Protein backbone atom coordinates (compact mmCIF):
# COMPACT_ATOMS: atom_id res chain seq x y z
CA UNK A 1 0.00 0.00 0.00
CA UNK A 2 0.95 3.62 -0.44
CA UNK A 3 -0.45 6.66 1.36
CA UNK A 4 -0.60 10.27 0.16
CA UNK A 5 -1.25 13.22 2.48
CA UNK A 6 -3.28 16.10 1.04
CA UNK A 7 -1.35 19.36 1.26
CA UNK A 8 -2.70 22.85 1.78
CA UNK A 9 -2.21 23.57 -1.93
CA UNK A 10 -4.60 20.68 -2.69
CA UNK A 11 -7.34 21.70 -0.25
CA UNK A 12 -10.83 21.63 -1.86
CA UNK A 13 -9.71 19.69 -4.92
CA UNK A 14 -12.02 16.87 -5.92
CA UNK A 15 -10.50 13.41 -5.90
CA UNK A 16 -10.82 13.38 -9.69
CA UNK A 17 -8.81 16.60 -10.04
CA UNK A 18 -6.24 15.39 -7.51
CA UNK A 19 -5.92 12.07 -9.35
CA UNK A 20 -5.27 13.82 -12.68
CA UNK A 21 -2.66 16.05 -11.05
CA UNK A 22 -0.83 13.44 -9.00
CA UNK A 23 -1.37 9.97 -10.43
CA UNK A 24 -2.44 10.14 -14.09
CA UNK A 25 1.21 9.79 -15.11
CA UNK A 26 1.58 6.45 -13.34
CA UNK A 27 -1.90 4.84 -13.17
CA UNK A 28 -3.71 4.11 -16.46
CA UNK A 29 -7.40 4.89 -16.81
CA UNK A 30 -9.68 7.39 -15.11
CA UNK A 31 -10.24 8.23 -11.47
CA UNK A 32 -13.71 6.73 -11.69
CA UNK A 33 -12.35 3.45 -13.03
CA UNK A 34 -9.79 3.29 -10.21
CA UNK A 35 -12.50 3.85 -7.61
CA UNK A 36 -14.81 1.30 -9.23
CA UNK A 37 -11.99 -1.23 -8.83
CA UNK A 38 -11.85 -0.43 -5.10
CA UNK A 39 -8.30 0.86 -5.32
CA UNK A 40 -8.43 3.89 -2.99
CA UNK A 41 -9.30 4.63 0.62
CA UNK A 42 -9.93 8.08 2.10
CA UNK A 43 -8.89 8.22 5.74
CA UNK A 44 -9.23 4.45 5.91
CA UNK A 45 -12.69 4.27 4.29
CA UNK A 46 -13.34 3.01 0.75
CA UNK A 47 -13.64 5.96 -1.64
CA UNK A 48 -16.41 5.62 -4.22
CA UNK A 49 -17.24 9.05 -5.64
CA UNK A 50 -14.58 10.82 -7.78
CA UNK A 51 -16.29 14.14 -6.99
CA UNK A 52 -15.44 13.82 -3.29
CA UNK A 53 -13.85 17.07 -2.07
CA UNK A 54 -10.53 16.69 -0.27
CA UNK A 55 -9.21 18.65 2.71
CA UNK A 56 -5.73 19.43 4.02
CA UNK A 57 -4.43 16.49 6.05
CA UNK A 58 -6.66 13.86 4.41
CA UNK A 59 -4.91 10.57 3.76
CA UNK A 60 -5.51 8.75 0.49
CA UNK A 61 -4.33 5.15 0.42
CA UNK A 62 -3.68 3.25 -2.80
CA UNK A 63 -4.18 -0.35 -1.68
CA UNK A 64 -2.70 -1.80 -4.86
CA UNK A 65 0.50 0.20 -4.98
CA UNK A 66 3.85 -0.99 -3.75
CA UNK A 67 5.47 1.03 -0.98
CA UNK A 68 7.67 3.82 -2.28
CA UNK A 69 11.20 2.65 -2.89
CA UNK A 70 13.47 5.65 -2.67
CA UNK A 71 16.03 6.02 -5.41
CA UNK A 72 19.48 5.80 -3.78
CA UNK A 73 21.17 9.23 -3.72
CA UNK A 74 24.32 7.63 -5.15
CA UNK A 75 22.39 6.92 -8.37
CA UNK A 76 22.18 10.66 -9.04
CA UNK A 77 25.03 11.40 -11.44
CA UNK A 78 26.71 14.82 -11.42
CA UNK A 79 27.63 15.82 -14.98
CA UNK A 80 29.21 19.22 -14.20
CA UNK A 81 29.94 21.31 -11.13
CA UNK A 82 31.47 24.69 -10.27
CA UNK A 83 31.01 27.17 -7.44
CA UNK A 84 27.63 28.33 -8.79
CA UNK A 85 26.02 25.42 -10.60
CA UNK A 86 25.49 21.70 -10.77
CA UNK A 87 24.23 19.77 -13.76
CA UNK A 88 22.80 16.40 -12.75
CA UNK A 89 21.37 13.48 -14.69
CA UNK A 90 17.88 12.97 -13.26
CA UNK A 91 16.47 9.44 -13.51
CA UNK A 92 12.79 8.64 -14.12
CA UNK A 93 10.69 8.31 -10.98
CA UNK A 94 12.30 11.27 -9.25
CA UNK A 95 10.93 14.75 -8.56
CA UNK A 96 13.06 17.80 -9.33
CA UNK A 97 12.38 19.15 -5.83
CA UNK A 98 10.30 18.17 -2.78
CA UNK A 99 6.55 18.74 -3.11
CA UNK A 100 4.06 18.96 -0.27
CA UNK A 101 2.35 15.62 0.37
CA UNK A 102 4.64 13.75 -2.04
CA UNK A 103 6.85 10.99 -0.65
CA UNK A 104 8.75 10.22 -3.83
CA UNK A 105 12.49 10.76 -4.04
CA UNK A 106 13.58 14.17 -5.27
CA UNK A 107 16.83 15.62 -6.59
CA UNK A 108 17.33 18.31 -3.93
CA UNK A 109 16.86 15.92 -1.01
CA UNK A 110 19.20 13.42 -2.66
CA UNK A 111 21.86 16.11 -3.05
CA UNK A 112 21.49 17.14 0.59
CA UNK A 113 22.09 13.55 1.66
CA UNK A 114 25.27 13.42 -0.43
CA UNK A 115 26.76 16.73 0.71
CA UNK A 116 26.28 19.21 3.54
CA UNK A 117 24.87 22.17 1.67
CA UNK A 118 21.91 24.54 1.77
CA UNK A 119 20.51 27.01 -0.72
CA UNK A 120 20.34 24.59 -3.65
CA UNK A 121 17.42 25.10 -6.05
CA UNK A 122 16.42 23.66 -9.44
CA UNK A 123 17.23 26.06 -12.25
CA UNK A 124 14.80 24.27 -14.52
CA UNK A 125 12.29 21.52 -13.86
CA UNK A 126 11.70 18.10 -15.34
CA UNK A 127 8.51 16.11 -14.92
CA UNK A 128 8.57 13.16 -12.50
CA UNK A 129 9.07 10.58 -15.27
CA UNK A 130 11.15 12.70 -17.64
CA UNK A 131 14.84 11.83 -17.55
CA UNK A 132 17.95 13.82 -18.30
CA UNK A 133 19.99 16.91 -17.57
CA UNK A 134 18.80 19.26 -14.84
CA UNK A 135 20.47 22.49 -13.70
CA UNK A 136 20.80 23.10 -9.96
CA UNK A 137 21.88 26.49 -8.62
CA UNK A 138 23.88 26.55 -5.39
CA UNK A 139 22.90 29.95 -4.00
CA UNK A 140 20.51 32.89 -4.57
CA UNK A 141 22.92 34.93 -6.69
CA UNK A 142 23.37 32.00 -9.07
CA UNK A 143 19.61 31.43 -9.17
CA UNK A 144 19.01 35.03 -10.20
CA UNK A 145 21.81 34.94 -12.74
CA UNK A 146 20.47 31.74 -14.30
CA UNK A 147 16.93 33.12 -14.47
CA UNK A 148 18.27 36.17 -16.30
CA UNK A 149 20.30 33.98 -18.67
CA UNK A 150 17.19 31.99 -19.55
CA UNK A 151 15.21 35.16 -20.23
CA UNK A 152 18.02 36.34 -22.50
CA UNK A 153 18.04 33.02 -24.38
CA UNK A 154 21.58 32.15 -23.26
CA UNK A 155 20.65 28.61 -22.16
CA UNK A 156 19.48 26.14 -24.79
CA UNK A 157 17.76 22.95 -23.63
CA UNK A 158 17.15 20.24 -26.19
CA UNK A 159 15.31 16.99 -25.70
CA UNK A 160 14.99 13.64 -27.43
CA UNK A 161 11.49 12.29 -27.73
CA UNK A 162 9.72 9.54 -29.64
CA UNK A 163 6.35 10.50 -31.07
CA UNK A 164 3.55 8.79 -32.95
CA UNK A 165 3.54 9.12 -36.73
CA UNK A 166 5.65 11.12 -39.19
CA UNK A 167 5.98 14.90 -39.07
CA UNK A 168 5.07 16.85 -42.24
CA UNK A 169 8.38 18.75 -42.30
CA UNK A 170 11.88 17.50 -41.40
CA UNK A 171 12.42 20.62 -39.27
CA UNK A 172 10.03 23.34 -38.13
CA UNK A 173 8.97 25.63 -35.30
CA UNK A 174 5.39 25.07 -34.14
CA UNK A 175 3.33 27.86 -32.59
CA UNK A 176 0.21 27.69 -30.44
CA UNK A 177 -1.36 28.89 -27.19
CA UNK A 178 -1.30 27.04 -23.87
CA UNK A 179 -3.25 27.33 -20.62
CA UNK A 180 -2.54 25.35 -17.45
CA UNK A 181 -5.50 24.25 -15.35
CA UNK A 182 -4.19 24.90 -11.83
CA UNK A 183 -6.69 22.48 -10.27
CA UNK A 184 -5.74 19.45 -12.38
CA UNK A 185 -2.22 20.54 -13.51
CA UNK A 186 -3.24 19.48 -17.03
CA UNK A 187 -2.70 21.95 -19.86
CA UNK A 188 -4.85 22.83 -22.85
CA UNK A 189 -3.46 23.89 -26.23
CA UNK A 190 -5.15 25.74 -29.12
CA UNK A 191 -3.98 27.32 -32.36
CA UNK A 192 -5.78 30.62 -31.66
CA UNK A 193 -5.58 32.88 -28.59
CA UNK A 194 -8.06 32.24 -25.77
CA UNK A 195 -8.59 33.70 -22.31
CA UNK A 196 -5.65 33.13 -19.98
CA UNK A 197 -3.55 31.26 -22.56
CA UNK A 198 0.08 32.09 -23.23
CA UNK A 199 1.84 31.81 -26.61
CA UNK A 200 4.21 28.86 -27.04
CA UNK A 201 6.81 27.92 -29.64
CA UNK A 202 8.34 24.47 -30.03
CA UNK A 203 11.21 23.74 -32.43
CA UNK A 204 11.80 20.20 -33.66
CA UNK A 205 14.07 18.28 -36.03
CA UNK A 206 13.36 14.74 -37.22
CA UNK A 207 16.29 12.45 -36.46
CA UNK A 208 14.86 9.08 -37.48
CA UNK A 209 11.62 7.44 -38.63
CA UNK A 210 10.76 3.85 -37.84
CA UNK A 211 7.51 1.92 -38.12
CA UNK A 212 4.79 4.27 -36.91
CA UNK A 213 7.15 6.45 -34.84
CA UNK A 214 9.53 9.36 -35.25
CA UNK A 215 12.51 10.22 -33.10
CA UNK A 216 12.81 13.98 -32.66
CA UNK A 217 15.30 16.44 -31.31
CA UNK A 218 13.10 19.12 -29.80
CA UNK A 219 13.51 22.46 -28.05
CA UNK A 220 10.77 24.29 -26.13
CA UNK A 221 11.57 27.83 -27.24
CA UNK A 222 9.13 28.96 -24.58
CA UNK A 223 9.25 26.99 -21.35
CA UNK A 224 5.67 26.20 -20.28
CA UNK A 225 4.34 23.34 -18.17
CA UNK A 226 4.09 20.10 -20.18
CA UNK A 227 4.80 22.12 -23.32
CA UNK A 228 6.48 19.42 -25.39
CA UNK A 229 4.04 16.71 -24.39
CA UNK A 230 0.89 18.78 -24.86
CA UNK A 231 2.03 20.58 -28.02
CA UNK A 232 3.02 17.40 -29.82
CA UNK A 233 -0.28 15.77 -28.85
CA UNK A 234 -2.15 18.83 -30.13
CA UNK A 235 -0.56 18.56 -33.59
CA UNK A 236 -1.42 14.85 -33.75
CA UNK A 237 1.95 13.36 -32.78
CA UNK A 238 1.78 12.52 -29.06
CA UNK A 239 4.86 11.36 -27.19
CA UNK A 240 5.03 7.56 -27.00
CA UNK A 241 4.35 6.31 -23.47
CA UNK A 242 2.76 9.55 -22.28
CA UNK A 243 -0.08 8.49 -19.94
CA UNK A 244 -1.57 11.99 -19.81
CA UNK A 245 -1.55 13.29 -23.40
CA UNK A 246 -0.68 10.14 -25.34
CA UNK A 247 -2.54 7.27 -27.01
CA UNK A 248 -3.23 4.45 -24.55
CA UNK A 249 -3.32 1.69 -27.18
CA UNK A 250 0.03 2.78 -28.62
CA UNK A 251 1.57 2.99 -25.15
CA UNK A 252 0.40 -0.56 -24.39
CA UNK A 253 1.76 -1.86 -27.68
CA UNK A 254 5.24 -0.60 -26.86
CA UNK A 255 5.00 -1.46 -23.18
CA UNK A 256 5.77 2.08 -22.03
CA UNK A 257 4.09 3.59 -18.96
CA UNK A 258 6.10 6.81 -18.96
CA UNK A 259 6.80 9.36 -21.65
CA UNK A 260 9.67 8.71 -24.07
CA UNK A 261 11.15 12.13 -23.35
CA UNK A 262 14.66 12.98 -22.22
CA UNK A 263 16.46 16.27 -21.54
CA UNK A 264 19.49 15.38 -23.65
CA UNK A 265 21.60 18.52 -23.97
CA UNK A 266 22.31 21.89 -22.37
CA UNK A 267 24.27 24.59 -24.22
CA UNK A 268 25.40 27.96 -22.87
CA UNK A 269 26.14 31.32 -24.52
CA UNK A 270 28.12 33.84 -22.46
CA UNK A 271 30.36 35.44 -25.08
CA UNK A 272 31.24 38.61 -23.15
CA UNK A 273 34.71 38.17 -21.61
CA UNK A 274 33.61 40.00 -18.45
CA UNK A 275 30.49 37.88 -17.89
CA UNK A 276 30.77 35.91 -14.60
CA UNK A 277 29.89 32.72 -16.48
CA UNK A 278 32.12 33.30 -19.51
CA UNK A 279 33.80 29.99 -18.57
CA UNK A 280 30.63 28.24 -19.81
CA UNK A 281 30.47 30.04 -23.15
CA UNK A 282 30.16 27.61 -26.04
CA UNK A 283 29.99 24.56 -23.79
CA UNK A 284 27.42 21.84 -24.45
CA UNK A 285 26.65 19.03 -22.01
CA UNK A 286 25.10 15.86 -23.41
CA UNK A 287 23.43 12.87 -21.81
CA UNK A 288 24.90 9.89 -23.64
CA UNK A 289 22.55 7.03 -22.79
CA UNK A 290 18.84 7.64 -23.44
CA UNK A 291 17.07 4.58 -22.08
CA UNK A 292 13.91 4.64 -24.21
CA UNK A 293 15.96 4.51 -27.43
CA UNK A 294 16.86 0.90 -26.67
CA UNK A 295 13.33 0.02 -25.58
CA UNK A 296 11.93 1.34 -28.88
CA UNK A 297 14.86 -0.09 -30.88
CA UNK A 298 16.12 3.21 -32.22
CA UNK A 299 19.64 2.57 -30.96
CA UNK A 300 21.88 5.04 -29.14
CA UNK A 301 23.29 8.06 -31.08
Mean pLDDT: 88
Count of domain modules: 3
Shape: globular
Write down the CATH class of the largest domain. Alpha Beta
Low-confidence stretches: none
Derived from helix and strand composition plus strand pairing, the structural class reads alpha+beta
Supply the number of helical segments. 7
End-to-end separation: 40 Å
Give the SSE string.
Answer: EHHEEEEEHEEHEEEEEHHEEH
CATH topology of the largest domain: Pseudouridine synthase
Strand percentage: 25-35%
Radius of gyration: 20 Å
CATH architecture of the largest domain: 2-Layer Sandwich
Helix content: 10-25%
Task: Find the CATH superfamily of the largest domain.
Answer: Pseudouridine synthase
Could you state the oligomeric state of the chains shown? single chain
How many strand elements?
A: 15
Biggest sheet statistics: 11 strands, mixed
Give a verbal description of the structure:
This protein is of the alpha+beta class. The protein has 3 domains: 2-62, RNA-binding S4 domain (Structural Genomics Hypothetical 15.5 Kd Protein In mrcA-pckA Intergenic Region, Chain A, Roll), CATH 3.10.290; 68-152, Pseudouridine synthase (2-Layer Sandwich), CATH 3.30.2350; 159-262, Pseudouridine synthase. It is 18% helix and 30% strand. It is built from 7 helices and 15 strands. It has helices at residues 15-22, 31-36, 107-114, 140-151, 227-234, 248-254, 291-295, and strands spanning 2-5, 40-42, 45-46, 59-62, 77-81, 85-90, 121-122, 131-137, 155-164, 171-180, 187-190, 198-210, 213-220, 261-268, 284-286. Strands 5, 6, 7, 8, 9, 10, 11, 12, 13, 14 and 15 form an 11-stranded mixed sheet that branches. A 4-stranded antiparallel sheet has the order 1-4-2-3, with no helix packed on it. A hairpin with an 8-residue loop joins strand 7 (121-122) and strand 8 (131-137). It is globular, with a radius of gyration of 20 Å. The chain starts with a strand and ends in a 6-residue tail after the last helix. The mean pLDDT is 88.
Amino acid sequence: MRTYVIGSNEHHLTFESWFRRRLAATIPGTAGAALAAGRFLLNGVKLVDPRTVLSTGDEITDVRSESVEKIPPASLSVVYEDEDLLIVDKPAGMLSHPEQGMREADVLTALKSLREATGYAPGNRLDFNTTGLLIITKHKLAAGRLAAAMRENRVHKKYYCAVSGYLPEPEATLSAYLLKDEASAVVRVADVPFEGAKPIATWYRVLFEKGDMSLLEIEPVTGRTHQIRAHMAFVGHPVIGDPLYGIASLNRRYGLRRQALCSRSLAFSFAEPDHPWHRLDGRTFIKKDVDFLDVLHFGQP
